[in-house]
Design a protein that fits this description.
single chain; alpha+beta; Nuclear Transport Factor 2, Chain: A; 4 helices; 5 strands; 33% helix
Length: 141
Amino acid sequence: MASCRQTAQVLVTAYNSYTLENMMDVRSSDCINYILPHSLGQKPMDNEQYMAWIAPRLPLFRNFTLTVHDTVVDEAARKVVLHMTSTASTDLGDYHNEYMLKLHMTEDRRKVDKFEEFVDSGYSSKVMKELLEHQSRKSSL
């Protein structure tokens, strides 16, 4: 049986590969994704909704890299908490963000069943708005 720590590392590796297929492969078929805090107004997303949400955002970033700074694992509860930062390049300059992920694993600990992603809400709101507006202007040319 896989450990929760191993599955969390698979998830980080998948996100660093920056392909939708790899990002989705570590999720269970019933996985629900939460982007928090609630003040961001993001509704919980199943896998299909998450793919539709993230797919247009992937091209906004180049050389996306997650760095794990701390990991807390509770094997009995099948949970992992990760404190991470990310860096990337965008058309508007360098990107830096900070996250706390709380991952709930399936019973066999091989997949993520619930994905709670706390982001730097002020930074995320501002930068994503600017990047999406830039992308919209680019595509209308």
